[in-house]
Amino acid sequence: ACKKNDCFTPPEPVVFEFVNAEGKNLITTGQLNKKNFEFREELGDRENKLVAYDIQSDDRVILPKVGWTEGFIKYKFLSTIKSFPFTVKTSKNQNCGGTTIEELKLDDVHYHQKDGYILVILERE
Question: How far apart are CA 26 and CA 86, in angstroms?
């Protein structure tokens, strides 16, 4: 049972798998690597900050710190293949501390919400 301030539920991590039109993972194929893509959080007034990420053993990308702030947060994925903006809407958990990601929306890119991750199809424009 939760008492006030004695429990905390972190948000689920945001996980992306980037694939090409044939469904091949772009990290596995070497087209994406730590040197040619990054994530940025939009802070307003043309300011932004780098967002930490890790590449997991399955070549999916995890953003461990996204979703920890309550509200509506804008991000950008920047890469040499294609860049796109995305937004995360979070809310405070009712009984326990922490936040829940209510909505994650990607713009200008094809994607599918899968179980536990987001499959993003990246193609050069």
Answer: 19
* Total number of domains constituting the chain: 1
pTM beyond cutoff 0.90: no
Instruction: Evaluate whether residue 93 is within a structural domain.
Output: yes
For tokens 């049972």, name the residue.
1
How far are the Cα atoms of 29, 37, 104 from residue 85, in angstroms, in the given order? Answer: 24, 13, 11
Range of the domain at 38: 14-121
pLDDT digits (tens, 9 = 90+) for 15-56: 999 999 999 999 999 999 999 999 999 998 999 999 999 999
Residues 6+ apart with CB under 8 A from 117: 15, 16, 17, 60
Domain-located, residue 39: yes
* Position 36 in a domain: yes
Residue 4 DSSP SS3:
coil
Residue 38's CATH number: 2.60.40
51, part of any domain:
yes
Torsion, CA 38, CA 44, CA 45, CA 47, rounded to 10: -30
Tokens representing residue 120 in the block: 């993003």
